[in-house]
Amino acid sequence: SRAPRMSAPEPSETTHASHDDDDDDVDPATINTTTLPAPFTLSYFKKAQNRSYEENTIKLGTVATVEEFWLLYVHLRRPIDERPSSCDYHVFREGIKPMWEDEANINGGKWIVRLKKGLAARYWEDVLLAILGGACTGVDDDEICGAVLSVRYQEDILAVWNRSADSRRVCLTIRDTLREVMELPATANMDYKKHT
Questions:
Q1: Is residue 23 scored above 90 in pLDDT?
Q2: Average pLDDT of the chain, as a whole number
Q3: Could you read off the pLDDT of 94-143 as tens digits, one per residue?
Q4: Which of 50, 70, 158, 195 has the most neighbouring CB atoms within 10 Å?
Q5: Contact of 45 with 56, CB cutoff 8 Å
């Protein structure tokens, strides 16, 4: 069975106002929204000479609702569009930097899945939607810090970052959720790496 996925609400669920061709102004107060469990920031990293990691990381936007996510996401280039260059895609809770040195990440770690070329776009979207939708039940709401997709020449690397590397129960719950979301067999190779 497929893991929970977020989808754009049906038009009848998103607005109370009728909209005709003569009225281009929609009052935001009349639009229903679906709030995410927490706001998330999407960013992109591509290495450039003589610039720090933070200088090379471009913030694409922060989203707090399903509708804001889809408004941003439909305009983003997918991982498959980037080949053959090397880059990273990030989605992290608002206020958490995609760096292990960030206070929220420093005592945590990440589950790593190495992907054959050609699979990254599908798996990234599945994991992205699961994280934004809070699909990892059985752990504290703020346990998942974010995720990174590293597009490389030979393979792509998907990592889900969490706060508590020392909790075996938490780490195994995240692993099992990630395996379910990606529909990986129990024999699939997944590695956990502590940040410090």
A1: no
A2: 85
A3: 999 999 999 999 999 999 999 998 888 889 999 999 999 999 998 998 99
A4: 158
A5: yes
Query: CB atoms < 10 A from the CB of 64, how many?
Result: 15
Identity of the residue numbered 95? G
**Whole-angstrom Cα distance, residue 162 to residue 93?**
11
Q: Please list the residues that pair with 192 across neighbouring strands.
A: 111
**What local confidence, expressed as pLDDT, does residue 4 receive?**
45
Q: What is the DSSP string of the chain?
A: -PPP---PPPHHHHBSS---TT-----GGGB---EEEEEEEEEEE---TT--HHHHEEEEEEEEEHHHHHHHHTTSPPHHHHTTS-EEEEEEETT--SSTTSTTTTT-EEEEEEE-TT-HHHHHHHHHHHHHTT--TTS-TT-EEEEEEEE-SS-EEEEEEES-TT-HHHHHHHHHHHHHHTT--TTS--EEEE--
What is the amino acid identity at position 30? T
- CB of 86 within 8 A of CB of 47? yes
pTM over 0.70: yes
Contact between 146 and 175 under an 8 Å Cβ cutoff? The reply is no
